[in-house]
Design brief:
Low-confidence stretches: 1-14
Structural class: mainly alpha
Distance between the termini: 51 Å
Number of helices: 7
Radius of gyration: 19 Å
Number of strands: 0
Order of helices and strands: HHHHHHH
């Protein structure tokens, strides 16, 4: 039995396009997924290198939230893949190509939103929780609607990646990433409210964290 046939049999014909040889996974879909996936990972690695806390920033306010966040994202990806194999009966069968394409579009949309948000924030964006002297509250672009649009973008990308696995149970892994971002937001908002004072606290009262008018 060929490896691809064994893989199909073992997974119950699940269609996570990250695996070549799976039934229904076309070469263009696999290539598209890997291009977007590595663009996401590569951009985050580049961001982590280029956007460390600025000189004079208060880096110790991070409280380890960056590493908890990174760990939660990778854990969501790994758990999602594991669940797709553990529960093949939960595979999306009837509209799996639609699910895959929606997932891919969500990944791209999330990346675009995150990078647009980072561009708007400018030098105020850092990968660690840090502030700098004279920092102002930014309310332009997506920040007029939510306080953490770059995190909204990241969560959209994670949701899209999990949806590309075409397994309903895999989406449960999103809970891990949400927990990581919840911790990050708590640490970040505590630092910003302390260092930026009343302007940021007023901003918090006017806006939601991630989704306009919702949460």
């Amino acid at each position: 039995m060929a490896f691809s046939d064994a893989l199909i049999e073992a997974t119950g014909s699940v269609f996570p396009p990250i695996f070549f040889g799976n039934q229904g996974a076309t070469i263009p879909s696999v290539v598209a997924f890997w291009v977007v996936f590595y663009a996401w990972i590569g951009s985050e690695v580049w961001l982590g290198y280029r956007r460390r806390h600025p000189a004079g920033g208060v880096a110790d306010q991070d409280a380890g939230s960056k590493w908890w966040l990174i760990s939660s994202i990778w854990a969501s990806v790994a758990i999602g893949i594991g669940l797709a194999f553990a529960f093949p009966d939960a595979a999306i069968v009837g509209a799996r190509m639609v699910a895959f394409l929606v997932g891919l579009l969500l990944m791209i949309a999330g990346m675009v939103l995150r990078w647009y948000s980072i561009r708007v924030l400018g030098t105020s964006f850092t990968c660690e929780v840090a502030t700098r002297p004279g920092q102002q509250v930014v309310e332009a672009g997506p920040y007029q609607w939510v306080r953490h649009p770059s995190y909204t973008g990241s969560l959209l990308t994670v949701v899209g990646m999990l949806l590309c696995l075409c397994n309903v149970v895999s989406l449960a892994a999103m809970i891990v990433a949400v927990a990581g971002y919840a911790n990050r937001i708590r640490v970040e908002e505590r630092a910003l409210a302390k260092d930026l004072g009343h302007p940021y606290r007023d901003y918090m009262r006017r806006t939601k964290r991630l989704i306009p008018f919702v949460v």
